[in-house]
Amino acid sequence: MKGLKDLIQVAIQTNEREIVFTSFSGHILIKQSLDGETSSVCLTHEEFNMIQAMSDNENMSRFMSSVFNSKAM
User: Domains in the chain: how many in total?
Assistant: First the structure.
């Protein structure tokens, strides 16, 4: 049952497509269905945070600084 506590799933469905975000064991699976075609990608939380930070240059700068600082230790 502990594994189920760590599982989070969110589905968004519109007239055109369905997107499902699933978070489990430190990974995020993003699956999209559009016009009968399905594609998916699996990211670590760190990779997902990097993608989020790309939408804001200031956030990206802070994120990269934190990565470099953590690797230097």
Answer: 1
